[in-house]
Amino acid sequence: MKSIIWTIAGSDSGGGAGIAADIKAIESFGGHACTIITALTAQNSMGVEAINAVTIEVLESQFAALESDMPAKVIKIGLLANIQQVEFVAAKLAHFKANWPLPPLVVYDPVAVASSGETLTEDDIIPTLKNTLLPLVDVITPNTQETQILTGHYLIGPSAVRDASEAFFNLGVGAAVIKGGHWDYPQGYCVDYCAVPGQEYWLGNEKIIAPHNHGTGCSYASSMAACLGLGYPLKDAFILAKAYINQGLKVSVRIGQGIGPVAHKGFPHDLADFPTVIEAGSWLGKELELEPWDRPVVAEFSPSETQQLGLYAVVDNCDWLKLCLENGIKTVQLRIKNSDTPNLAEQIQTAVALGQQFQARVYINDHWQLAIEHGAYGVHLGQEDLDTADLVAIKAAGLKLGLSTHGFYEMLRAHNYQPSYLAFGAIYPTTTKDMTGQIQGLEKLKHFVPLMKAYPTVAIGGIDLIRAPEVAATGVGSVAVVRAITEAADPLQAISQLQQAIKV
Ligand SMILES: Cc1ncc(COP(=O)(O)OP(=O)(O)O)c(N)n1
Ligand SMILES: Cc1ncsc1CCOP(=O)(O)O
Ligand SMILES: [Mg+2]
């Protein structure tokens, strides 16, 4: 079933912002948009002529109609035209959060000032917003000006952005997404910030010079709301919203005599529209004073000799490794999770020798120092290893590098390193490893594979003989399995059947 997203916002008679933008963005991501209209604005591409706030009775009737039949997974809020509306909406949200079996997430785009410059709300609305609404907000998506109005922080640099997000947390907001479209820092770049207490994400891309950008704020917040409704983690919703806006800005056109609307072009599919995940150690990271600034981002690892790594067996000892190689598997990983395994170094040495003997690609999981020491073909690392492994040494030793990713954010982070292959997981639930909250599903895999078509790609997690054909049909170059081989009644037959099943 489609996820239901309510948008509580004003209508824009010009069709570029507010409710119109929200519906288009939500539907682009496959959500179902329901509307609660707070004001009928009279505006066009030249500006706002009138704001006709609806009465509380009209607001109430819209809430009542939806609440009884179509409860929301996510509620996105845009224009609230006066203090009474803020108080009324806040009371409703408090009620939903306390009483609904599945409390809705609340995304608030604090539309304080229209892009055309006209004030859309009453001047004295701010204290009421802070006291009643913000404590109920899970994600706030202000621009520079709105951040300044709500927090008092003038965004002159990265530390001020952090201070502003802290100020939002102190007001009871769960997560702050501060949009950098209006600040030119670093010069020529557009940098966006997303934070929850204790964790921050920075995204950047070259500024897109697009005069027709009406409705970008509404569309950004609605995209985030839709992605959260689809169950994407915040950092992935952040990436996708940014890509959606970039995509729309690049093809926006004049409609009317003034500023045209950002275009709505569906789920973003072109890597060129996706922002860069800003790493500490990259030049953008240094500009933003991200720590640790002295850990360089090492890129361009030894490329794979093939895009199609085929059936990929992930095993925890050399007996299994040998059996897989003897039965024709050309990509195998030695994954020994216990670092105290007494003969770890010998096993790695044996695995490397077996790989050479069978002219196969043998990757060593985690133990990159021993992999270098024993001249392994490659290493497979996880996202957390990117913060600790000596990538300079791995690259210098000529080892191939495979990287795990779980979602859009991690995929784009891994892309910064230009590894030898990218793995996407877990595609299905698995008992081999705790992947709680990280199950991607086939639909996301269908997005990942074409976006990362420059790399050999691997799908892992819960794949068996039945699922292997649908996984292979996504175009992924390799299917990695543990239990489908190691727990098969007849492992040799399983290997042969899996090899057949992934031929598309
Ligand atoms: C092919 C492949 N993909 C993903 C993983 C998972 O690696 P990682 O994230 O490092 O987790 P652990 O395997 O170390 O638990 C993998 N091993 N192989
Ligand atoms: C190591 C790993 N990383 C993501 S899922 C997974 C385990 C895959 O095991 P299985 O094929 O048995 O589901
Ligand atoms: Mg690992």
Automatic annotation (TrEMBL):
Condenses 4-methyl-5-(beta-hydroxyethyl)thiazole monophosphate (THZ-P) and 2-methyl-4-amino-5-hydroxymethyl pyrimidine pyrophosphate (HMP-PP) to form thiamine monophosphate (TMP). SUPFAM superfamilies: Ribokinase-like (SSF53613), Thiamin phosphate synthase (SSF51391). Keywords: ATP-binding, Kinase, Magnesium, Metal-binding, Multifunctional enzyme, Nucleotide-binding, Thiamine biosynthesis, Transferase. Gene3D superfamilies: 3.40.1190.20, Aldolase class I. It comes from Pseudoalteromonas tunicata D2. This is Thiamine-phosphate synthase. Its EC number is 2.5.1.3. Its cofactor is Mg(2+). Coiled coil: none annotated. InterPro entries: Aldolase_TIM, HMP/HMP-P_kinase_dom, PM/HMP-P_kinase-1, Ribokinase-like, ThiamineP_synth_sf, ThiamineP_synth_TenI, TMP_synthase. 2-[(2R,5Z)-2-carboxy-4-methylthiazol-5(2H)-ylidene]ethyl phosphate binds at T430, T431, T432, G462. The gene is thiE. It catalyses: 2-[(2R,5Z)-2-carboxy-4-methylthiazol-5(2H)-ylidene]ethyl phosphate + 4-amino-2-methyl-5-(diphosphooxymethyl)pyrimidine + 2 H(+) = thiamine phosphate + CO2 + diphosphate; 2-(2-carboxy-4-methylthiazol-5-yl)ethyl phosphate + 4-amino-2-methyl-5-(diphosphooxymethyl)pyrimidine + 2 H(+) = thiamine phosphate + CO2 + diphosphate; 4-methyl-5-(2-phosphooxyethyl)-thiazole + 4-amino-2-methyl-5-(diphosphooxymethyl)pyrimidine + H(+) = thiamine phosphate + diphosphate. Mg(2+) binds at D366, D385. Residues 317-485 form the Thiamine phosphate synthase/TenI domain. GO terms for biological process: thiamine biosynthetic process; thiamine diphosphate biosynthetic process. Binds 1 Mg(2+) ion per subunit.
